[in-house]
């Protein structure tokens, strides 16, 4: 197992809670070195794979040189896109949020900080904003779009998130980005594209990921945004599979190729691909889900939304008080995805309707189904005496 980071497996999903100050550093780790030794896993940390030869079945790494493989898994994930603006390169206190080291850098800076600026209208932007606000910093959240998750939420959904952010004391700046940064007495002056200015102690950016596929250029491995696989997570190269964020896999449920940037998907991919690498040939069938806090509320994204499938049609139910929102996505007569904010009731029913591909005639009737009480799990049948 080859990885270029200096740490044994840690949970990226725990990083926001560590940043918020509610989780100790030690609790972010999932595995230690002893576990790998006990399980006879040769883990090479701080080691970068710089070349793969699929004909010779060899991997070249630095340090360490070449090793050969019988079967290979590519799970290289993505790296965060840096802020490209004048003054950004090498700026102190400007952070991405993907790695443990970045989280540690921010945790060290927070006690000396009063004002934070965040750029990014998706989940990483949200996590940074929430953590800074939770730590009591004056927090400004900038995003290029007119509202959070602008491709998946509509105006009403955007408004619910705005209300939740304002409840948490966050200052929102829509249709705004960072034009340039200037260093000023140990702080960063942030100048926006539409008139925003602030002198910040820290700046966080969540501008998406670039998949780590550069090393496969010219090797014949089929890639697009990520590494292309079929429904078995097999690539076009013999004895090579791909999983996790980097895998652009054929999804049997939505019947198209796509990538999922979620922990659950990566974990399930890993478990599934292990079986296939050991000789099984089972398709990966799972409705993708993403669940997260949303300030003092919750958000859940399931299946396919207009982010991935702009032609999907949607129906919405919203209650501004107490900040509940449901958006259901359809392709033809099939429910293919949903976003719930606030009350999570009906989540199981949504997943069931998506995976069973049940034909639905009256789309709004689904809201009634979601409001029904959920059945408790069946009790085991009593054994007759
Ligand atoms: C702050 C944060 C919060 C998140 N919150 C959530 C959440 O609430 N819910 C959720 O579902 N998901 C969340 N995610 C996403 C989730 O963490 C990812 O989907 C998951 O970590 C992907 O796992 P992976 O193994 O595919 O890739 P990664 O975790 O990206 O791991 C890939 C590893 O490969 C290494 N690598 C890449 N190329 C090479 C090379 N050539 N040689 C050696 N090593 C290499 C990388 O450095 C990295 O260590 C969050 C992510 C972040 C950053």
Number of helices: 8
What does the radius of gyration come to? Answer: 23 Å
The assigned structural class equals alpha/beta
List bound small molecules: flavin-adenine dinucleotide
Total strand segments: 23
Distance between the termini: 54 Å
Characterize the biggest β-sheet. Answer: 5 strands, parallel
Within the CATH hierarchy, at the fold level, what is the topology of the domain at 80-209? FAD/NAD(P)-binding domain
CATH architectural name of the domain at 80-209: 3-Layer(bba) Sandwich
Bulk shape: globular
- Share of helical residues: 10-25%
Overall mean pLDDT stands at 94
Contiguous runs where pLDDT drops below 50 for at least 5 residues:
379-385
What share of residues are in beta strands? 25-35%
CATH superfamily of the domain at 80-209: FAD/NAD(P)-binding domain
Write down the CATH class of the domain at 80-209: Alpha Beta
Q: Biggest sheet, strands in spatial order?
A: 6-13-7-8-9
């Amino acid at each position: 197992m080859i990885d270029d980071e200096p740490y044994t497996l840690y949970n990226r999903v725990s990083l926001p809670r560590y940043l918020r100050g509610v989780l100790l550093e030690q609790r972010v780790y999932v595995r230690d070195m002893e576990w790998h030794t006990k399980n006879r896993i040769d883990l090479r940390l701080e080691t970068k794979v710089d070349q793969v030869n699929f004909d010779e079945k060899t991997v070249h790494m630095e340090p360490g040189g070449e090793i050969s493989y019988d079967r290979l898994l590519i799970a290289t994930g993505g790296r965060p896109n840096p802020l490209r603006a004048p003054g950004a390169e090498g700026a102190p206190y400007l952070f991405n949020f993907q790695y443990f080291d970045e989280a540690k850098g921010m945790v060290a800076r927070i006690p000396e900080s009063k004002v934070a600026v965040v750029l990014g209208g998706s989940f990483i932007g949200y996590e940074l904003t929430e953590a800074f606000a939770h730590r009591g910093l004056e927090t400004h959240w900038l995003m290029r779009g007119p509202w959070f998750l602008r491709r998946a939420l509509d105006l009403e959904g955007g408004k619910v998130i705005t209300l939740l952010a304002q409840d948490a004391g966050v200052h929102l700046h829509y249709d705004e980005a960072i034009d340039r940064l200037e260093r000023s007495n140990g702080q960063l002056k942030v100048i926006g594209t539409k008139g925003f200015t602030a002198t910040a102690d820290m700046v966080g950016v969540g501008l998406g990921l670039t998949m780590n596929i550069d090393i496969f250029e010219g090797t014949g491995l089929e890639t697009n945004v990520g590494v292309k696989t079929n429904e078995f997570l097999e690539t076009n190269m013999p004895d090579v599979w791909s999983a996790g964020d980097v895998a652009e896999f054929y999804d049997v449920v939505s019947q198209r190729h796509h990538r999922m940037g979620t922990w659950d998907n990566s974990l399930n991919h890993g478990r599934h691909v292990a079986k296939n690498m050991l000789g099984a040939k089972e398709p990966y069938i799972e409705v993708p889900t993403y669940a997260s806090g949303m300030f003092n509320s919750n958000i859940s994204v399931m299946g396919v939304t207009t982010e991935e499938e702009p032609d999907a049609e949607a129906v919405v139910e919203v209650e501004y008080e107490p900040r509940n929102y449901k958006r259901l996505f359809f392709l033809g007569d099939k429910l293919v995805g949903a976003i719930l904010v606030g009350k999570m009731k009906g989540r199981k029913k949504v997943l069931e309707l998506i995976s069973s591909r049940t034909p639905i005639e009256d789309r709004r009737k689904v809201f009634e189904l979601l409001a029904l009480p959920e059945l408790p799990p069946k009790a085991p049948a009593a054994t007759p005496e």
